[in-house]
Design a protein that fits this description.
The protein is α/β, with parallel strands linked by helices. It is 43% helix and 17% strand. It is built from eleven helices and 13 strands. The structure holds uridine-5'-diphosphate-4-deoxy-4-fluoro-alpha-D-galactose.
Length: 333
């Protein structure tokens, strides 16, 4: 049985679908602070899902899962992930992302569960010294969110040496798109990400889409990111789990498409996919945005055999289908 923490959230739920489609039984552990019960209900319709509402900050919550179920491995997503909020309230990030993960790891050791796939981030690299960014790029995060994820990476290395806990640390770049059938999708409150913000602005809610700065040193002055499709990313988690089973050794992989797209290019692609003009306004830079981030993901290709199959257009198409259905989904408790 596979335990997926944070599976009522965006990337966790897509990963749960991938495991379910491949015949695994899944335990969803989520405190529903950012995750949604509607997502859990959607997952239950797809496969063999057990749901435990609990919080990693309470060690008894997570211990009850290991008491009740025979867990083979953990895929760990549960975390707060807003950069701006982490600057204002770092305690929240260290308590949940670091201390909560430590509770999880300690219980794994106690119950002799020795495999974990961890959701890390390219934010652990900080301001890039070179692009594309490979796994050997120095890790110097520039905000508490990145720091909290890097702390866990250190913890995982040390728990391997001391307790034989094997981990795969996956450093994601920017994630986009949704389940092609719109059974689950991206539902953040507040929404801060680029693709959903562009799409939401077309629904007549009065919120014009804003580009944060067009004076960066890039092709068109807007920031460049590497947008990897969430279903492709989900597949990488299953391949990482398989790698742990086959090799019983820890490792780290970047996950990205190796292609950089500027904010303007993403915006243009949205207009193309929706076949309409979208209102836009250029505003000030958002603090803390590096000009250019994209991955060298060749290691994941070579070692995990992972290759992203979906394009940015595919991600925008599936995200739009999801946005059109989101109000229905919300009402479907
Ligand atoms: N952007 C806009 N307007 C918006 C939203 C975003 O112009 O309404 C721009 C941002 O300034 C940035 C780009 O679009 O240049 C992408 O922004 P996102 O907020 O979608 O994503 P980030 O690159 O800021 O953050 C993502 C993850 C974080 C992770 C980070 C690592 O969401 O969790 O990558 O760099 F930490």
């Amino acid at each position: 049985m596979i335990l997926i923490t944070g599976a009522a959230g965006y990337i966790g739920s897509h990963t749960a679908i991938n495991f379910l489609n491949n015949g695994y039984e899944v335990v969803v552990f989520d405190n529903l602070e950012n995750g949604h019960i509607q997502t859990v209900n959607a997952l239950k319709k797809i496969g063999n899902v057990h749901f435990v509402q609990g919080d990693l900050r309470n060690i008894s919550d997570i211990e009850s899962v290991f008491e009740k179920y025979k867990i083979d491995a953990v895929i760990h997503f549960a975390a707060f992930a807003l950069v701006g909020e982490s600057v204002e309230n770092p305690a929240k990030y260290y308590r949940n992302n670091v201390f909560g993960t430590m509770n999880l790891l300690d219980i794994m050791v106690k119950y002799d569960v020795k495999k974990i796939v961890f959701s890390s981030t390219c934010a652990t690299y900080g301001e890039p010294k070179y692009t594309p960014i490979d796994e050997n790029h120095p890790q110097n995060p520039i905000n508490p969110y990145g720091n909290s994820k890097l702390c866990v990476e250190y913890m995982l290395k040390d728990y391997d040496v001391a307790y034989g806990l094997k981990s795969i640390r996956l450093r994601y770049f920017n994630v986009a798109g949704c389940d092609e059938e719109a059974r689950v999708g991206e539902w953040h409150e507040p929404e801060t990400h680029l693709v959903p913000n562009i799409l939401k602005s077309t629904f007549g809610n009065g919120k014009k889409f804003k580009i944060f700065g067009n004076d960066y040193d890039t092709v068109d002055g807007t920031c460049i990111r590497d947008y990897v499709n969430v279903e492709d990313l989900a597949e990488a988690h299953r391949l990482a789990y398989k790698y742990l089973c086959d090799n019983n050794e820890s490792n780290v992989f970047n996950l990205g498409t190796e292609q950089g797209d500027s904010v303007k290019q993403v915006f243009d692609t949205c207009e193309k996919v929706l076949n309409r003009k979208i209102d836009v306004e250029i505003v000030e830079r958002r603090p803390g945005d590096p000009a250019k981030l994209y991955a060298n993901a060749s290691k994941a290709k070579q070692i995990l055999g992972w290759s992203p199959k979906r394009t940015l257009e595919n991600s925008i198409q599936s995200a739009y289908k999801w946005e059109c259905n989101l109000d229905n989904f919300k009402n479907n408790v």
